[in-house]
Design a protein that fits this description.
Radius of gyration: 18 Å
Shape: globular
Distance between the termini: 33 Å
Number of strands: 7
Order of helices and strands: HHHHEHEEEHEHEE
CATH topology of the largest domain: Rossmann fold
Length: 218
């Protein structure tokens, strides 16, 4: 129960801040700036950050085990179910952001080359279990985009029935219609990517307050 509490705490707070990110985007407010400002409070606030979705073996799964178990005792875990729904929608939010950003450049998502930068479920590891990159890639391919990826830790990943292999990051960034930063590995060449890419959807705020018109934040 201790482990379930820990992971459920994280999942629910991430779900809340993901919902806030969607609100802020609609209102034209920088959610990352809001979180940084709130984090200056010396007590009573713990910063959580939005992203493309949850991944890994624990956080996406343990809360739903707790929810399932609670139903055996006649209880409904409403917070858990709602946070899970919000988090599950984030890959759709990422793909919609890509689609709208391409539209601004007069391009359709169908037929566009979209390159994913980082596909592991968190930075600097080689684990893709439950990674949001899998859902993002699936949704992009379903909508007719050509998807490639680069990840220094993941040489190959399977999306549905397709095997994708990691490509050269900078060459792909230069060729792609849009680069989507899914996993913020510390050793990806972000500055060089920005120079070469036409459009970057940054789901992890790696470019922080960079005002380049190429960058679209989650």
């Amino acid at each position: 129960m201790v482990k379930l509490l820990e992971n459920t705490f994280r999942m629910i707070n991430i779900g809340m801040v993901n919902e806030l990110a969607i609100m802020c985007r609609r209102m034209g407010i920088d959610v990352w700036e809001v979180i940084d400002a709130a984090a200056t409070k010396p007590f009573g606030f713990m910063p959580f950050y939005p992203g493309p979705g949850l991944g890994g073996h624990c956080i996406p799964i343990d809360p739903f085990y707790l929810s399932w178990k609670s139903k055996q005792f006649g209880l409904e875990a409403r917070f858990i179910e709602l946070a899970g729904y919000v988090n599950a929608q984030m890959p759709h939010q990422v793909v919609d952001t890509v689609m709208l950003s391409l539209n601004e450049q007069g391009k359709a998502l169908k037929g566009s080359h979209v390159h994913l930068a980082g596909v592991a479920y968190k930075r600097d590891i080689d684990d893709v279990r439950e990674s949001p990159a899998l859902d993002v890639a699936h949704l992009l391919m379903t909508r007719g985009a050509r998807v490639t990826y680069s990840d220094p830790y993941v040489p190959m990943m399977r999306v549905d029935q397709d095997e994708l292999f990691s490509q050269d990051c900078l060459a792909s960034a230069e060729q792609a219609d849009c680069v989507v930063i899914i996993t913020n590995h510390t050793d990806l060449p972000y500055a060089a990517m920005l120079e070469r890419a036409r459009l970057i959807v940054d789901t992890r705020n790696v470019y922080k307050r960079n005002a380049s018109p190429k960058i679209v934040r989650l």
